[in-house]
Write a structure and sequence with these properties.
This protein is an alpha+beta fold. Strands 5, 6, 7, 8, 9 and 10 form a six-stranded antiparallel sheet that branches. It has a five-stranded antiparallel sheet with strand order 11-15-14-13-12, with no helix packed on it. The longest helix has about 40 residues. It is rod-shaped and about 135 Å long. The model has no long low-confidence stretch (mean pLDDT about 90).
């Protein structure tokens, strides 16, 4: 009878140990469930998820299931495709003509016929150099906003922005390569019935590619480009 009582106490303690073990495993499982909830990352805004390149396995690639990331390590961007911008650089010699709010024409290298109006939003305060070739050339960071949206405009596309410094309406425009100078005057070669004739012109505003002609040409006349 005494041994039976001892057995009952022994089995009761075993059952209590198993009950505590169950509670311990339940708390362990709940911790993992809580961790799984924390693994869900909520974006602060709606938009398009764009995966970033990270260093994994000795090479750059997108993050995969099972990879380990560290606090502050970027691996994804959320962008609003209806409000896109262009991050660019301008040579330090050109920044003196740039102002906030200037109009710009923005194009995409992947879609040559697609352009958007835009505006200069931000101009960097300090010029930065390149890391490798031509490290002595300094460029200033520039940011332009794209006004309008299109399904073809996605992040990480190469783009360009032509900032409008001056504007002239209703003028004749010719390539700079068509203009040559002599004795302080400018001339172009205009096509006629016999070939080409030299004609003096008065030039207006210009950029690195084209120039406006104030006087000396008529609309529709053809000029020779050297």
């Amino acid at each position: 009878q005494q041994e039976l009582a001892d057995r009952k106490a022994y089995y009761a303690s075993e059952i209590r140990i198993l009950q505590l073990t169950v509670q311990r495993h339940m708390r362990h499982m709940q911790r993992h469930q809580h961790d799984l909830e924390k693994f869900t990352v909520f974006a602060p805004m709606a938009g398009l998820a764009v995966m970033q390149q990270i260093f994994r396995g000795g090479e750059m690639g997108q993050i995969q299931e099972g990879d380990q990331i560290y606090p502050g390590q970027p691996f994804m961007k959320i962008v609003d495709p209806h409000s896109m911008q262009v991050d660019a650089t301008a040579n330090q010699t050109e920044t003196g003509s740039l102002r906030l709010g200037q109009s710009a024409r923005i194009g995409l290298d992947a879609f040559p016929g697609l352009t958007f109006p835009g505006k200069v939003k931000a101009i960097g305060a300090l010029a930065v150099g390149g890391w490798r070739a031509n490290a002595y050339i300094r460029n200033v960071p520039l940011r332009c906003t794209i006004e309008g949206s299109d399904a073809r405009v996605i992040p990480d596309l190469s783009a360009y922005a032509d900032v409008v410094l001056q504007r002239a309406a209703n003028v004749i425009q010719v390539p700079l390569a068509a203009v040559h100078s002599a004795n302080g005057k400018q001339f172009v070669m205009v096509k006629n019935a016999q070939g080409f004739e030299q004609r003096e012109v008065t030039l207006g505003i210009h950029n690195e590619i084209d120039t406006a002609v104030k006087d000396g040409l008529q609309v529709g006349e053809e000029v020779r480009v050297d």
